[in-house]
Amino acid sequence: MLNSFNRRYFILLGLLFAVVGFCHASTHPKLLVLGDSMSAEYGLPRGTGWVSLMAERLKKEKPTATVINASISGDTSFGGRSRLPALLAQHQPSIVLIELGGNDALRGLALQATRENLEFMVKASQLAGAKVVLIGMQVPPNYGPDYANQFAGLFRSVAKERKTSLVPFLLKNVADRPDPTQLFQADRIHPNEQAQPLMLENVWSVLRKLL
User: Fold this and answer.
1) Active-site residue identified among 36, 37, 75, 94
2) Domain harbouring 83, CATH code
3) 3-state SS class at 58
4) How do residues 55-88 score in pLDDT, each as one tens digit?
């Protein structure tokens, strides 16, 4: 049985390890990107997507940072929810960027299910000690204003409730241009190479506050 001195010793030792771990995360940030085709360089030359551009910028501004891109084309919020626990355990990121939900809308999945999946991913990341950037998406006008507003509101609502950072719209200044076709691939769904720096700026304006 531990006496009072030993108990104090182990408490102080635990606090020391906690501080050292916090300082290591602060000086060597590890960023995990959990996304779909928008983050997985779908249809793009390797190294030209916004996540790769972010990694290049971090090399200059935060050389000790590491970026893990765990994005998969076609992934849904449920797919991300299923994959995230193992990724958190493996990489122990200090920042998690969640860019999922767009494919939920394309597949007509229930909004409540998407919301629950986003909430799960944000909460799991926070419980693992990571800060979170929730990256919002919007749907085209042909979905109707009611659905479009409800879908966009999911990201705002989850970010507010979980007190996490929010990028309101990943494709700001890309999909909302007078002629957005100039910045999209032939499928008119996936942004082209010229759009990637604009997407990065949308994320970076929020991310840099955490770094």
Assistant:
1) 37
2) 3.40.50.1110
3) helix
4) 999 999 999 999 999 999 999 999 999 999 999 9
